[in-house]
Amino acid sequence: MLKGRSLIEPGNFTIEEMDALFSLAERIEEDPAYLRESCRGRLLATLFFEPSTRTRLSFEAAMQRLGGSCLGFADPGSSSASKGESLADTIRMAASYADAIVMRNPKEGAALLASRYSPVPVINAGDGGHHHPTQTLTDLLTIKRLRGKPGDKSLRDSVKGLTVGFCGDLKFGRTVHSLAKALARYEGVKLVFVSPPELRAPEYVTRLLQREKIEYLETTSLEDAMPGLDVLYMTRVQRERFFNEEDYIRLKDTYVLSLEKMETAKKELIVLHPLPRVNEIAIEVDADPRAAYFKQAKYGMYVRMALLASIMGVI
Fold this sequence. Notes:
The chain has twelve helices and nine strands.
């Protein structure tokens, strides 16, 4: 179904296609031997023009667990991009060696551009402050696994009636933009945006929610929002997205999730974070059973295994 397809933003796949990916990821989680060696002889190019730990390593782990191999770079300074090579030429070159390309780039729209020059599938691993669709798949699978009910047949069943809160840098946070856009496809979801005025969610996100008739609330108070949340998606204030260091220093500690704040939350709450964490979640919160961000990172490997197996056509 997904063979040969690129993934640039969450809307590239239908709801049914995403459900199929989640089902495959769950089967892989339950049976680690399933699809082992299915990608033997295939190569994945990982081109990271921006720093990454979880996304790059989880893609490489996913490919290797499927029996395939990886090549690429984690620092553009070690590639011909440092010599002035265009993105189009880099993509054409990588596509001649690999069966699929995973790329992270600091420029919005870079992944879409890459897909137009590539004869093999391109997976967007983050383009500036725009989209991060495989993180969105990770987030949705985590919500389905941890907040879904045994009888749920699809993600639609699992998210219906949930209130999902986003806290922190909502202006530049590509993971927030991608997840909010994905959740807007499901009825019965309510979103709460918690941020300082300077880091509010962009208008294109809120306009989309209005168009899809998704209920949402904007507030500056995490304390006021906490009691009503089923999912809390914390984000760091991203230093690399600021042009003014003074603004970053002023805003970076606006929200810190502590055990004291967790006391007012629901017992069934799950706390997610795309990571890396700086200081927006106190270390003490890690011991709370509602802290799910490290489980979330592991689900990311399973869903990327499902994605790679699907676009490479081995299932």
